[in-house]
Specification:
Elements lengths: L2 E6 L2 E15 L2 E2 L13 E3 L2 E7 L5 E7 L8 E5 L2 E6 L15 E9 L5 E5 L5 H10 L3 E5 L3 H8 L4 E2 L3 H7 L2 E4 L4 H9 L12 E4 L5 H12 L4 E4 L2 E2 L1 H7 L2 E6 L2 H11 L3 E7 L4 H29 L4 H10 L5 H11 L10 H17 L5 H18 L7 H9 L7
Parallel strand pairs: 10-11, 10-13, 11-12, 13-14, 14-15, 17-18
Antiparallel strand pairs: 1-2, 2-3, 2-9, 4-5, 5-6, 7-8, 16-17
Amino acid sequence: MHALEIIWGNSKLATGDWKYLKTFWGAQDLPHYTARGGQANVGRWHDERVDLRAHSRGGAVLRYRSDRGVKRRLLLEHRGGDVREVARPIGGRLAPTPQRMYIATLIDFAEQTMDKNIGFIGLGKMGVPMASRLIDAGYELTVYDVRRESVDLLVARGAHAAASPAAVGHAAATVLLSLPDPATVRAVALGADGVASGSKVKTVLDLSTTGATAAREIAAALAARGIAGVDSPVSGGVAGAVKGTLAVMVACPRTLFAELEPMLSRIGRVFFIGERAGMGQTMKLANNLLSATAMAATSEAVVFGVKAGLDPSIMIEVINAGSGRNTASQDKFPKSILPRSFDFGFTNGMMYKDVRLCLEEANASAVPMPVAGAVRDLWRRVFEEIGGEHDFTTIAQLVERAAGVEIGKT
Protein backbone atom coordinates (compact mmCIF):
# COMPACT_ATOMS: atom_id res chain seq x y z
CA MET A 1 0.00 0.00 0.00
CA HIS A 2 1.05 3.63 -0.41
CA ALA A 3 1.05 6.36 2.17
CA LEU A 4 -1.06 9.47 1.76
CA GLU A 5 -0.55 12.58 3.84
CA ILE A 6 -3.11 15.35 4.32
CA ILE A 7 -1.67 18.78 5.22
CA TRP A 8 -3.51 21.93 6.31
CA GLY A 9 -1.15 24.89 6.61
CA ASN A 10 1.71 23.63 8.77
CA SER A 11 -0.38 20.96 10.46
CA LYS A 12 -0.58 17.33 9.50
CA LEU A 13 -4.23 16.33 9.81
CA ALA A 14 -3.95 12.66 9.04
CA THR A 15 -1.71 10.11 7.44
CA GLY A 16 -2.09 6.48 6.53
CA ASP A 17 -2.03 3.62 4.05
CA TRP A 18 -5.48 4.28 2.69
CA LYS A 19 -7.51 2.39 0.19
CA TYR A 20 -10.21 5.03 -0.13
CA LEU A 21 -10.45 8.69 0.78
CA LYS A 22 -13.51 10.85 0.89
CA THR A 23 -13.95 14.53 1.51
CA PHE A 24 -15.39 15.64 4.79
CA TRP A 25 -17.29 18.92 4.60
CA GLY A 26 -18.59 20.20 7.89
CA ALA A 27 -20.80 17.47 9.29
CA GLN A 28 -21.93 16.32 5.86
CA ASP A 29 -20.22 13.49 4.03
CA LEU A 30 -20.13 13.60 0.27
CA PRO A 31 -21.32 10.42 -1.42
CA HIS A 32 -18.69 7.90 -2.43
CA TYR A 33 -18.18 7.47 -6.16
CA THR A 34 -16.64 4.63 -8.13
CA ALA A 35 -13.37 5.43 -9.88
CA ARG A 36 -13.66 6.19 -13.59
CA GLY A 37 -9.98 6.06 -14.43
CA GLY A 38 -7.67 8.75 -15.76
CA GLN A 39 -4.67 10.44 -14.22
CA ALA A 40 -4.90 12.77 -11.25
CA ASN A 41 -5.14 16.45 -12.07
CA VAL A 42 -1.81 17.57 -10.69
CA GLY A 43 -1.04 21.26 -10.80
CA ARG A 44 -2.44 24.58 -9.66
CA TRP A 45 -5.92 26.02 -9.48
CA HIS A 46 -6.70 29.26 -7.66
CA ASP A 47 -4.50 29.39 -4.54
CA GLU A 48 -4.39 25.64 -3.97
CA ARG A 49 -1.73 23.12 -4.80
CA VAL A 50 -1.66 19.35 -5.06
CA ASP A 51 1.88 18.02 -5.21
CA LEU A 52 2.40 14.29 -5.81
CA ARG A 53 5.91 13.13 -5.13
CA ALA A 54 7.75 9.99 -4.10
CA HIS A 55 7.61 9.09 -0.44
CA SER A 56 10.43 7.44 1.47
CA ARG A 57 8.24 4.37 1.80
CA GLY A 58 7.98 4.13 -1.94
CA GLY A 59 4.42 5.33 -2.23
CA ALA A 60 2.74 8.53 -3.29
CA VAL A 61 2.16 11.47 -0.99
CA LEU A 62 -0.78 13.81 -1.40
CA ARG A 63 0.15 17.16 0.12
CA TYR A 64 -2.78 19.53 0.14
CA ARG A 65 -2.53 23.23 1.01
CA SER A 66 -4.68 26.31 0.68
CA ASP A 67 -4.05 29.73 2.22
CA ARG A 68 -7.45 31.12 1.27
CA GLY A 69 -9.81 28.22 1.71
CA VAL A 70 -11.11 25.44 -0.49
CA LYS A 71 -12.73 26.41 -3.76
CA ARG A 72 -13.48 22.98 -5.13
CA ARG A 73 -14.50 19.62 -3.74
CA LEU A 74 -12.35 16.71 -4.77
CA LEU A 75 -12.84 13.01 -4.18
CA LEU A 76 -9.83 10.77 -4.72
CA GLU A 77 -9.32 7.04 -4.94
CA HIS A 78 -5.97 5.42 -4.34
CA ARG A 79 -5.21 2.32 -6.40
CA GLY A 80 -1.78 0.87 -6.79
CA GLY A 81 0.68 3.63 -7.67
CA ASP A 82 -1.90 6.16 -8.86
CA VAL A 83 -4.04 8.71 -7.15
CA ARG A 84 -6.98 9.27 -9.48
CA GLU A 85 -9.53 11.99 -9.57
CA VAL A 86 -12.96 10.45 -9.11
CA ALA A 87 -15.36 13.32 -8.62
CA ARG A 88 -14.98 16.75 -10.17
CA PRO A 89 -16.08 19.95 -8.36
CA ILE A 90 -19.58 19.79 -6.88
CA GLY A 91 -21.63 22.94 -6.41
CA GLY A 92 -20.50 26.53 -6.64
CA ARG A 93 -17.58 28.50 -5.31
CA LEU A 94 -16.94 28.05 -1.60
CA ALA A 95 -16.19 30.96 0.69
CA PRO A 96 -12.43 31.14 1.44
CA THR A 97 -12.63 31.00 5.25
CA PRO A 98 -10.63 28.62 7.46
CA GLN A 99 -13.84 27.62 9.26
CA ARG A 100 -15.17 26.19 6.01
CA MET A 101 -12.16 24.08 5.18
CA TYR A 102 -12.65 20.43 4.45
CA ILE A 103 -10.23 17.66 5.15
CA ALA A 104 -9.81 14.24 3.69
CA THR A 105 -10.80 11.39 5.93
CA LEU A 106 -10.98 7.65 5.72
CA ILE A 107 -13.95 5.41 4.83
CA ASP A 108 -12.05 2.19 4.38
CA PHE A 109 -8.41 1.28 4.81
CA ALA A 110 -6.01 -1.63 4.60
CA GLU A 111 -3.16 -0.64 6.91
CA GLN A 112 -3.08 2.71 8.64
CA THR A 113 0.06 4.30 10.00
CA MET A 114 -1.43 5.68 13.23
CA ASP A 115 -0.11 3.92 16.31
CA LYS A 116 -1.90 0.58 16.38
CA ASN A 117 -1.01 0.01 20.02
CA ILE A 118 -4.12 1.06 21.92
CA GLY A 119 -5.50 0.53 25.39
CA PHE A 120 -8.94 -0.78 26.32
CA ILE A 121 -10.41 -0.67 29.83
CA GLY A 122 -13.77 -2.22 30.71
CA LEU A 123 -14.31 -5.72 29.39
CA GLY A 124 -17.97 -6.31 30.08
CA LYS A 125 -20.75 -7.43 27.75
CA MET A 126 -20.02 -4.53 25.40
CA GLY A 127 -16.30 -4.15 25.97
CA VAL A 128 -15.25 -7.69 25.11
CA PRO A 129 -16.81 -7.76 21.61
CA MET A 130 -15.62 -4.23 20.81
CA ALA A 131 -12.07 -5.01 21.90
CA SER A 132 -12.21 -8.30 19.98
CA ARG A 133 -13.12 -6.51 16.77
CA LEU A 134 -10.16 -4.17 17.18
CA ILE A 135 -7.85 -7.15 17.67
CA ASP A 136 -9.30 -8.73 14.54
CA ALA A 137 -8.57 -5.50 12.66
CA GLY A 138 -4.88 -5.74 13.56
CA TYR A 139 -4.67 -3.45 16.58
CA GLU A 140 -2.33 -4.36 19.44
CA LEU A 141 -4.39 -4.05 22.62
CA THR A 142 -3.31 -3.55 26.21
CA VAL A 143 -6.35 -4.31 28.37
CA TYR A 144 -7.52 -3.99 31.96
CA ASP A 145 -10.61 -5.04 33.89
CA VAL A 146 -11.28 -5.86 37.52
CA ARG A 147 -12.53 -9.28 36.38
CA ARG A 148 -9.55 -11.44 35.55
CA GLU A 149 -11.63 -13.87 33.51
CA SER A 150 -12.56 -11.06 31.11
CA VAL A 151 -8.92 -10.07 30.70
CA ASP A 152 -7.99 -13.69 30.05
CA LEU A 153 -10.50 -13.87 27.18
CA LEU A 154 -8.70 -11.03 25.39
CA VAL A 155 -5.21 -12.26 26.29
CA ALA A 156 -6.10 -15.56 24.63
CA ARG A 157 -6.77 -13.55 21.46
CA GLY A 158 -3.41 -11.76 21.58
CA ALA A 159 -4.00 -8.79 23.90
CA HIS A 160 -1.55 -7.76 26.63
CA ALA A 161 -2.80 -7.64 30.22
CA ALA A 162 -2.12 -4.55 32.35
CA ALA A 163 -2.08 -4.47 36.14
CA SER A 164 -3.92 -1.14 36.44
CA PRO A 165 -5.47 1.71 34.43
CA ALA A 166 -2.23 3.64 34.89
CA ALA A 167 -0.32 0.74 33.35
CA VAL A 168 -2.57 0.98 30.30
CA GLY A 169 -1.74 4.70 30.12
CA HIS A 170 1.96 3.85 30.22
CA ALA A 171 1.55 1.39 27.33
CA ALA A 172 -0.71 3.19 24.85
CA ALA A 173 -1.17 6.72 23.51
CA THR A 174 -4.87 6.09 22.79
CA VAL A 175 -7.04 4.48 25.46
CA LEU A 176 -10.72 3.47 25.14
CA LEU A 177 -13.03 3.16 28.15
CA SER A 178 -16.24 1.10 28.31
CA LEU A 179 -17.47 1.44 31.88
CA PRO A 180 -20.81 1.24 33.72
CA ASP A 181 -21.29 4.70 35.26
CA PRO A 182 -19.84 8.22 35.63
CA ALA A 183 -18.17 7.52 38.99
CA THR A 184 -16.26 4.57 37.57
CA VAL A 185 -15.19 6.58 34.51
CA ARG A 186 -13.86 9.36 36.77
CA ALA A 187 -11.93 6.93 38.94
CA VAL A 188 -10.44 5.01 36.02
CA ALA A 189 -9.54 8.14 34.03
CA LEU A 190 -8.44 10.51 36.79
CA GLY A 191 -7.87 8.50 39.97
CA ALA A 192 -4.58 8.04 41.79
CA ASP A 193 -3.83 4.97 39.67
CA GLY A 194 -5.87 6.16 36.69
CA VAL A 195 -5.14 6.29 33.00
CA ALA A 196 -4.08 9.94 33.16
CA SER A 197 -1.14 8.91 35.36
CA GLY A 198 0.35 7.05 32.40
CA SER A 199 3.42 8.44 30.68
CA LYS A 200 2.32 7.68 27.11
CA VAL A 201 -1.43 8.38 26.96
CA LYS A 202 -2.46 11.35 24.81
CA THR A 203 -6.12 10.58 24.01
CA VAL A 204 -8.86 8.97 26.13
CA LEU A 205 -12.07 7.91 24.36
CA ASP A 206 -15.03 7.24 26.62
CA LEU A 207 -17.49 4.83 25.02
CA SER A 208 -19.60 4.77 28.20
CA THR A 209 -22.85 6.57 28.97
CA THR A 210 -22.06 9.18 31.62
CA GLY A 211 -24.17 12.25 30.81
CA ALA A 212 -23.02 15.55 29.32
CA THR A 213 -22.06 17.17 32.63
CA ALA A 214 -19.68 14.38 33.62
CA ALA A 215 -18.25 14.23 30.08
CA ARG A 216 -17.41 17.94 30.15
CA GLU A 217 -15.86 17.74 33.60
CA ILE A 218 -13.75 14.69 32.78
CA ALA A 219 -12.60 16.19 29.46
CA ALA A 220 -11.57 19.41 31.22
CA ALA A 221 -9.62 17.50 33.87
CA LEU A 222 -7.85 15.46 31.19
CA ALA A 223 -7.05 18.59 29.19
CA ALA A 224 -5.39 20.09 32.26
CA ARG A 225 -2.98 17.16 32.10
CA GLY A 226 -2.35 17.54 28.37
CA ILE A 227 -4.65 14.67 27.39
CA ALA A 228 -7.50 14.92 24.87
CA GLY A 229 -10.80 13.60 26.21
CA VAL A 230 -13.16 12.30 23.52
CA ASP A 231 -16.86 11.92 24.28
CA SER A 232 -17.86 8.87 22.22
CA PRO A 233 -20.79 6.82 23.58
CA VAL A 234 -22.14 3.90 21.57
CA SER A 235 -25.58 2.41 20.98
CA GLY A 236 -26.72 -0.86 19.48
CA GLY A 237 -26.42 -3.38 22.28
CA VAL A 238 -24.35 -6.52 22.56
CA ALA A 239 -25.48 -7.73 19.14
CA GLY A 240 -24.25 -4.50 17.55
CA ALA A 241 -20.94 -4.75 19.40
CA VAL A 242 -20.44 -8.31 18.14
CA LYS A 243 -21.38 -7.47 14.54
CA GLY A 244 -19.57 -4.13 14.44
CA THR A 245 -22.80 -2.24 13.70
CA LEU A 246 -22.92 0.10 16.71
CA ALA A 247 -23.80 3.77 16.35
CA VAL A 248 -20.66 5.58 17.55
CA MET A 249 -21.44 9.19 18.55
CA VAL A 250 -18.23 11.23 18.62
CA ALA A 251 -17.72 14.71 20.01
CA CYS A 252 -14.21 16.14 19.64
CA PRO A 253 -12.25 18.55 17.39
CA ARG A 254 -12.60 17.71 13.69
CA THR A 255 -8.92 17.03 13.17
CA LEU A 256 -8.89 14.50 16.01
CA PHE A 257 -12.08 12.94 14.66
CA ALA A 258 -10.32 12.38 11.32
CA GLU A 259 -7.54 10.48 13.08
CA LEU A 260 -9.87 8.34 15.18
CA GLU A 261 -12.61 7.52 12.66
CA PRO A 262 -10.74 4.64 10.96
CA MET A 263 -10.28 2.85 14.27
CA LEU A 264 -13.82 3.54 15.48
CA SER A 265 -15.26 2.38 12.16
CA ARG A 266 -14.17 -1.13 13.17
CA ILE A 267 -16.83 -1.20 15.88
CA GLY A 268 -19.67 0.54 14.07
CA ARG A 269 -20.99 3.45 12.06
CA VAL A 270 -19.25 6.60 13.19
CA PHE A 271 -21.14 9.90 13.55
CA PHE A 272 -19.53 13.29 14.10
CA ILE A 273 -21.89 14.93 16.62
CA GLY A 274 -19.94 18.12 17.36
CA GLU A 275 -16.73 19.52 18.76
CA ARG A 276 -17.73 20.05 22.40
CA ALA A 277 -17.45 17.36 25.05
CA GLY A 278 -20.92 16.32 26.19
CA MET A 279 -22.59 16.57 22.80
CA GLY A 280 -22.15 12.85 22.17
CA GLN A 281 -23.63 12.10 25.59
CA THR A 282 -26.67 14.28 24.89
CA MET A 283 -27.26 12.37 21.65
CA LYS A 284 -26.89 9.02 23.43
CA LEU A 285 -29.29 9.91 26.24
CA ALA A 286 -31.91 11.14 23.77
CA ASN A 287 -31.58 7.85 21.89
CA ASN A 288 -31.82 5.71 25.03
CA LEU A 289 -34.82 7.66 26.31
CA LEU A 290 -36.68 6.68 23.14
CA SER A 291 -35.55 3.06 23.52
CA ALA A 292 -36.68 2.98 27.16
CA THR A 293 -40.02 4.56 26.27
CA ALA A 294 -40.61 2.04 23.49
CA MET A 295 -39.97 -0.85 25.88
CA ALA A 296 -42.34 0.55 28.51
CA ALA A 297 -45.17 1.50 26.15
CA THR A 298 -44.99 -1.71 24.10
CA SER A 299 -45.07 -3.83 27.26
CA GLU A 300 -48.20 -2.04 28.44
CA ALA A 301 -49.87 -2.25 25.03
CA VAL A 302 -49.23 -5.97 24.60
CA VAL A 303 -50.33 -6.84 28.16
CA PHE A 304 -53.48 -4.79 27.54
CA GLY A 305 -54.21 -6.86 24.42
CA VAL A 306 -53.41 -10.18 26.06
CA LYS A 307 -55.84 -9.51 28.92
CA ALA A 308 -58.51 -8.76 26.28
CA GLY A 309 -57.86 -12.17 24.70
CA LEU A 310 -55.51 -11.24 21.84
CA ASP A 311 -52.64 -13.47 20.74
CA PRO A 312 -49.38 -11.59 21.58
CA SER A 313 -47.57 -12.98 18.54
CA ILE A 314 -50.30 -11.71 16.23
CA MET A 315 -50.25 -8.38 18.08
CA ILE A 316 -46.53 -7.95 17.42
CA GLU A 317 -46.98 -8.85 13.75
CA VAL A 318 -49.73 -6.27 13.36
CA ILE A 319 -47.80 -3.59 15.25
CA ASN A 320 -44.73 -4.15 13.07
CA ALA A 321 -46.86 -3.91 9.94
CA GLY A 322 -48.50 -0.70 11.12
CA SER A 323 -47.73 2.71 12.56
CA GLY A 324 -46.91 1.40 16.05
CA ARG A 325 -43.69 -0.31 14.92
CA ASN A 326 -40.70 0.48 17.16
CA THR A 327 -37.43 -1.03 18.37
CA ALA A 328 -39.13 -2.99 21.15
CA SER A 329 -41.72 -4.56 18.85
CA GLN A 330 -39.17 -5.26 16.13
CA ASP A 331 -36.36 -6.72 18.22
CA LYS A 332 -36.94 -7.16 21.93
CA PHE A 333 -40.37 -8.79 21.88
CA PRO A 334 -39.70 -11.37 19.12
CA LYS A 335 -36.25 -12.31 20.43
CA SER A 336 -36.59 -12.17 24.21
CA ILE A 337 -40.12 -11.52 25.49
CA LEU A 338 -42.44 -13.72 23.41
CA PRO A 339 -40.14 -16.76 23.90
CA ARG A 340 -39.75 -15.67 27.55
CA SER A 341 -35.97 -15.96 27.53
CA PHE A 342 -35.50 -12.37 28.78
CA ASP A 343 -31.91 -12.31 27.59
CA PHE A 344 -31.49 -9.40 25.18
CA GLY A 345 -28.23 -8.28 26.79
CA PHE A 346 -28.85 -4.98 28.65
CA THR A 347 -29.71 -4.70 32.33
CA ASN A 348 -32.53 -2.94 34.14
CA GLY A 349 -29.94 -1.09 36.17
CA MET A 350 -28.24 0.32 33.09
CA MET A 351 -31.51 1.41 31.49
CA TYR A 352 -32.73 3.06 34.67
CA LYS A 353 -29.38 4.85 34.98
CA ASP A 354 -29.60 6.17 31.41
CA VAL A 355 -33.16 7.47 31.77
CA ARG A 356 -32.31 9.06 35.12
CA LEU A 357 -29.25 10.76 33.61
CA CYS A 358 -31.37 12.05 30.75
CA LEU A 359 -33.85 13.66 33.15
CA GLU A 360 -31.04 15.16 35.22
CA GLU A 361 -29.48 16.77 32.14
CA ALA A 362 -32.89 17.98 30.94
CA ASN A 363 -33.63 19.55 34.33
CA ALA A 364 -30.23 21.26 34.30
CA SER A 365 -31.09 22.68 30.87
CA ALA A 366 -34.59 23.72 31.96
CA VAL A 367 -36.26 21.39 29.44
CA PRO A 368 -39.54 19.95 30.77
CA MET A 369 -39.99 16.23 30.03
CA PRO A 370 -43.20 14.96 31.65
CA VAL A 371 -43.37 11.80 29.50
CA ALA A 372 -39.75 11.00 30.28
CA GLY A 373 -40.53 11.49 33.97
CA ALA A 374 -43.24 8.84 33.82
CA VAL A 375 -40.90 6.48 31.96
CA ARG A 376 -38.18 7.01 34.58
CA ASP A 377 -40.63 6.22 37.39
CA LEU A 378 -41.62 2.95 35.72
CA TRP A 379 -37.98 1.94 35.24
CA ARG A 380 -37.28 2.76 38.87
CA ARG A 381 -40.00 0.28 39.84
CA VAL A 382 -38.48 -2.33 37.53
CA PHE A 383 -35.09 -1.70 39.13
CA GLU A 384 -36.48 -2.02 42.66
CA GLU A 385 -39.03 -4.83 42.18
CA ILE A 386 -37.49 -7.02 39.45
CA GLY A 387 -33.83 -6.24 40.11
CA GLY A 388 -31.16 -4.11 38.47
CA GLU A 389 -29.08 -7.10 37.45
CA HIS A 390 -31.84 -8.69 35.36
CA ASP A 391 -32.29 -8.14 31.62
CA PHE A 392 -34.23 -5.00 30.73
CA THR A 393 -36.80 -7.03 28.81
CA THR A 394 -38.12 -8.11 32.22
CA ILE A 395 -39.98 -4.80 32.34
CA ALA A 396 -42.78 -6.83 30.71
CA GLN A 397 -42.96 -8.98 33.86
CA LEU A 398 -43.71 -5.94 36.02
CA VAL A 399 -46.63 -4.98 33.78
CA GLU A 400 -47.82 -8.61 33.69
CA ARG A 401 -47.90 -8.82 37.49
CA ALA A 402 -50.00 -5.69 37.79
CA ALA A 403 -52.50 -6.95 35.20
CA GLY A 404 -52.61 -10.57 36.37
CA VAL A 405 -51.74 -12.06 32.95
CA GLU A 406 -48.69 -13.44 31.24
CA ILE A 407 -47.56 -12.65 27.70
CA GLY A 408 -47.41 -15.87 25.73
CA LYS A 409 -50.39 -17.41 27.46
CA THR A 410 -53.82 -16.37 26.24
